[in-house]
Design brief:
This protein is an alpha+beta fold. It has 13 helices and 17 strands. It has two domains: 5-156 and 323-443, FAD/NAD(P)-binding domain, CATH 3.50.50; 162-319, Beta Barrel (Elongation Factor Tu (Ef-tu), domain 3), CATH 2.40.30.260. It has helices spanning 12-23, 65-75, 79-86, 99-112, 142-152, 189-192, 202-214, 235-240, 293-300, 325-328, 353-371, 384-395, 424-443; strands at 5-8, 28-31, 55-58, 88-89, 94-97, 116-119, 131-134, 157-163, 166-168, 178-179, 195-200, 268-274, 281-284, 311-313, 316-322, 334-335, 338-343. Helix 2 (65-75) runs parallel beside helix 11 and helix 3 (79-86) crosses helix 4 (99-112). The longest helix has 20 residues, at 424-443.
Length: 446
């Protein structure tokens, strides 16, 4: 290859960036350190391996900002969305996938591409020349993390991501649990029954909260602080914020009717979402945790229906590194001090699989245009992709910068629409209609 584009990291962002650049005609080298250098969270050497949830969240492109981001990535010929669609599982109104088949499919498509090659080696320093995209994600290696800090002259910010446990479906007691998506959402019976629900009465809930608060937790190393991202709080941290917090969060009982006791409204409900195509594994929705393993099994088996649960994976916790992007990156995701280097994915300060892949998509397209001697216009801030990149490269306050999911609060308002909850449906539809038109126009520039 002559003058290829180098992409460091083979996660969601790196995979999408490679695909977009290769489809535009660039030679691409993906540098992925696994399996020679592993991480505690990854289990395989596949590209785009999902280490936390298997869900890309809502697929509603008219009333949900992440669903709109799905739409934009599909419109741009995104690999991540295409492979997610091919390997999707029933999940009500969400887009969930069989994580193993999804990663296998992404890996196969990338390695089959004539413009893409894979280098299984760790990159530990910043290159002096060439064209690079760093998409190393939340588990950036210590060596590369040191290089980033040395180059930026700033301490990398960090928070802790907690991983939810996965349960073997055949160990769930279906005389107590039942299948139902919240509010029966979904167009098919399979979609409407995509979740397993475990009900709790008030006494069971109170006992569960007591056990959760008393359980032995993972300790942090000296000098580390637990600055959690609010979208991925461990359940015990949520419980510490108030005994009712979980009832109004992942354990809310609304939109569900227990067929085993239809006249009794549960005080709280634990939901499990299908995790693979066979339907043999379910993850406990929203149950990220830093409890020690022994505590997890005893506490989670207090949940009605999970008394004899067998766990395919217990929860865990890991450090997540990201840049103070408002001060370090320009509007094209380039490092201001070294413009030949772009960043993409979670390391830029976006949160979530979809947001990470979207930043990879954008970085790959920008790199391809630059290689052709062209300059693309700024992505409209009225689009989901544009709203995210505007936020991380200047819209956020650098002094308090924290990882961000896409949400309509990042979008410029549409004038003349009713504010408040009652006007929300019309307002969100206006946001998504405007975004689709503006994104389509932006894609036309190449």
């Amino acid at each position: 290859m002559a003058d290829p584009l180098h992409i460091v990291g083979g996660g969601m962002a790196g995979a999408e960036a490679a695909w977009q650049a290769a489809q535009a005609g660039l030679d691409v080298v993906i540098h992925e350190m696994r399996p020679q250098t592993g991480t505690f969270a990854h289990r395989t050497d596949r590209l785009a391996e999902m280490v936390c949830s298997n869900s890309f969240r809502s697929d509603d492109d008219e009333q949900n900002a992440v669903g709109l981001l799905h739409w934009e990535m599909r419109a741009a010929g995104g690999l991540i969305m295409a492979m997610a669609d091919e390997n999707r599982l029933p999940a009500g109104g969400a887009l969930a996938v069989d994580r193993d088949r999804f990663a296998e499919a992404v890996t196969a498509r990338l390695l089959d591409h004539p413009k893409i090659s894979l280098d299984r080696a760790e990159i530990t320093s910043f290159p002096a020349d060439g064209r690079w995209i760093f998409a190393t994600g939340p588990l950036t290696s210590d060596a590369l993390g040191q290089a980033i800090r040395a180059e930026t002259g700033a301490e990398a910010l960090a928070f802790f991501d907690a991983i939810a446990p996965i349960v073997h479906a055949d160990s769930v007691d279906l005389t107590r649990a039942w299948f139902q998506s919240r509010y029966d959402k979904g167009e098919t019976e399979e979609e409407r029954t995509a979740y397993l629900n475990c009900p709790m009465d008030r006494d069971q809930y109170d006992a569960f909260i007591d056990a959760l608060l008393a359980a032995e937790k993972t300790e942090f190393h000296e000098g580390e602080t637990a600055g959690y991202f609010d979208g991925c709080l461990p359940i015990e941290v949520m419980a510490e914020r108030g005994r009712e917090t979980l009832r109004h969060g992942p354990m809310k009982p609304v939109g569900l009717t227990n067929p085993h006791a239809p006249d009794i409204k549960p005080h709280a409900v634990v939901q499990l979402r299908r995790d693979n195509a066979l339907g043999t594994l379910y993850n406990i929705v929203g149950f990220q945790t830093k409890m020690k393993y022994g505590a997890q099994t005893s506490v989670f088996r207090m949940i009605p229906g999970l008394e004899n649960a067998m766990f395919a994976r217990l929860g865990g916790i890991h450090r997540n590194t990201f840049l103070n992007s408002p001060t370090l990156l320009d509007a094209e995701l380039r490092l201001r001090s070294r413009p030949h280097i772009r960043f993409a994915g979670q390391i830029t300060g976006v949160e979530g699989y979809v947001e990470s892949a979207a930043m990879g998509l954008l970085a790959g397209r920008l790199a391809a245009a630059e290689h052709r001697g062209r300059s693309l216009p700024p992505v409209p801030a009225t689009t989901a992709t544009g709203a995210l990149v505007a936020h991380i490269t200047g819209g956020a306050d650098a002094r308090t910068f924290q990882p961000m999911n896409v949400n309509f609060g990042l979008f410029p308002p549409v004038e003349g629409l009713r504010a408040g909850r009652r006007g929300r449906r019309d307002r969100y539809k206006a946001y998504t209609d405007r975004a689709k038109a503006d994104w389509t126009a932006w894609l036309a520039h190449g």
